[in-house]
Amino acid sequence: MKTIEEFRNDLRDEGYYDIEATPDGVKVGDRVHHGGEQYMQAWRDGTATVLAIMEKSPSSWSTEWGQPDIELIVERDLPLTSSSSRVSQWADYHTVKVDDHG
Questions:
Q1: How many domains is the chain partitioned into structurally?
Q2: What is the pLDDT of residues 17-75, one digit of tens each?
Q3: What pLDDT is recorded for position 101?
């Protein structure tokens, strides 16, 4: 199971660097959930805490889509499976900040 530093090092090897926040204002320490998690508890409480935010610029993805290429490293409250780590990575466009639901 990968640690935050292993995720970070892998992203650095691909040309990513740490940034303060996403364009939507998500910062390290914020409670979030993955956009695919549509159940009420995820929307109300979140399912993860942001540990790191990293961007690659320029990248082929950002050039093609016209959006920043940003990855988040998060710590989930519970692992997705019994054999997976609580630390995970996903793109910022999959991220929903809990505060965004009012």
A1: 1
A2: 999 999 999 999 999 999 888 888 887 888 999 999 999 999 999 999 999 999 999 99
A3: 53
Residue whose C-alpha is closest to residue 51's, from 15, 2, 14, 99 = 2
* Residue in the structure block whose two tokens are 């997705």: 80
Distances from the Cα of 60 to the Cα of 19, 45, 67, angstroms: 19, 34, 11
Tokens of 2: 């990968």
Closest CA relative to residue 20, chosen from 52, 42, 49, 43: 52
Task: Give the C-alpha separation, 8 to 64, whole Å.
Answer: 24
Alpha-carbon distances of 49 from 35, 57, 100, rounded to whole Å: 14, 24, 15
Q: Could you tell me the residue range of the domain that residue 74 belongs to?
A: 4-101
Distance CA 36, CA 30 (A): 18
Task: Say what the pTM is.
Answer: 0.89
